[in-house]
Amino acid sequence: MANLPQSLSINAPFAAAGSSAQNAAAASQANKDHKMASVEHLILQLSNPDLRENALLELSKKRELFQDLAVAPLLWNSFGTIAALLQCVASHPDTKMLFLNAHIPLYLYPFLNTTSKSRPFEYLRLTSLGVIGALVKQVDDTEVISFLLSTEIIPLCLRTMEMGSELSKTVATFIVQKILSDDVGLDYICTAAERFFAVGRVLANMVASLAEQPSSRLLKHIICCYLRLSDNPRACAALRNCLPDMLRDATFSSCLREDPTTRRLLQQLLHNVEVNRMPPL
Ligand code: TRP
Fold first, then answer.
1. 155 pocket-lining for ligand 1 (C-beta < 6 Å)
2. Where are the domains of the chain?
């Protein structure tokens, strides 16, 4: 009796007094319901960054107690929990490298490789990209960039940029932008013509689809990618031919009027490409 959880030993005398197995079962069920409610409460707290740490601690303390409960399915099926945990450790400077060295991002790649356009798959890709996005969010992280390049994240991002929803396109383009912003990433893309043209083609296709469905956020990331590519002399020369005309004409003028930062970035891009038009002296 001493080893039983407190709530159960409190209920036990009543069950004994009623001398009914039914009462004992009801008490045990009530106790289970109570524990379940507290687990659910803690799991909800996991998606709140302020409460997450304490909720994690409480959940881990109660792990033994919860063996008879279906906690794992709750963690798995509750909204945002798994993503919150992954994104949380992927973005924290103290855990980022541990997360990377354990190769956990690799578990997400098969999700990025899916092609179904149904909502569950779209969410799966978006959530997975969110974790990769959290990894690259801080600037100047060559180690993270090198890991992602060596595991071939670029073709996976390009695929989402081609067929994803606006939101996942935006996250995938953000990741490519972050990779390009690193010298290792820029070199990786620009030293092989096929890589450069694969990226250029996908960016141009996104520009074309933006003309029908504008998104200033996505446009900004696309322009940032082009602008960074123009820092590489060979890529800059190639952009002369493959930069979409829509970026030079008035297609996005209304979008850009409300976004002076992006407008300036585009001017800089056009300037870079123009300057490179000059024949060498
Ligand atoms: N192994 C391929 C490569 O290194 C990966 C790849 C496919 C790729 N498509 C790409 C890399 C586009 C960069 C850009 O070329």
1. yes
2. 28-79
